[in-house]
Amino acid sequence: MRLDKFLKVSRLIKRRTVANEACDAGRVLVNDKAAKASLNVKEGDIIEIGFGTKAVKVEVLNVQETVKKEEAKELYRYL
């Protein structure tokens, strides 16, 4: 699954366009490398997102095309 879509489905970032812009600005790292929005995300990947002064680091546990709001937190684990 594309990185921008995973960020939207997992609700780490609310909209796909915002996820796209964050990737273009270099604020999203996957496995400690700057990632483009089109990068394929798989289970076990470590995603780090810079939100202003703080950073959020998560591990991908599951990749699904669609998921309910309540189950979105099961797609990743905070590190």
Folded structure, characterized:
It is globular, with a radius of gyration of 11 Å. The chain has helices at residues 3-9, 16-24; strands at 28-30, 33-34, 46-51, 54-60, 76-78. A five-stranded antiparallel β-sheet has the order 2-1-3-4-5. With 79 residues, it is an alpha+beta fold. Helices cover 20% and strands 27% of the residues.
What's the helix count?
Answer: 2
Give unreliable regions as ranges. none
Report on the biggest sheet. 5 strands, antiparallel
| Spatial separation of the terminal alpha carbons | 21 Å
What radius of gyration results from the CA coordinates?
Answer: 11 Å
Average residue pLDDT: 94
Query: In terms of quaternary structure, what is this?
Result: single chain
From the spread of the alpha carbons, the general shape counts as globular
Number of strand segments: 5
Q: What strand order characterises the main sheet?
A: 2-1-3-4-5
The helicity comes to 10-25%
Structure classification: alpha+beta
Order of helices and strands: HHEEEEE
Strand content: 25-35%
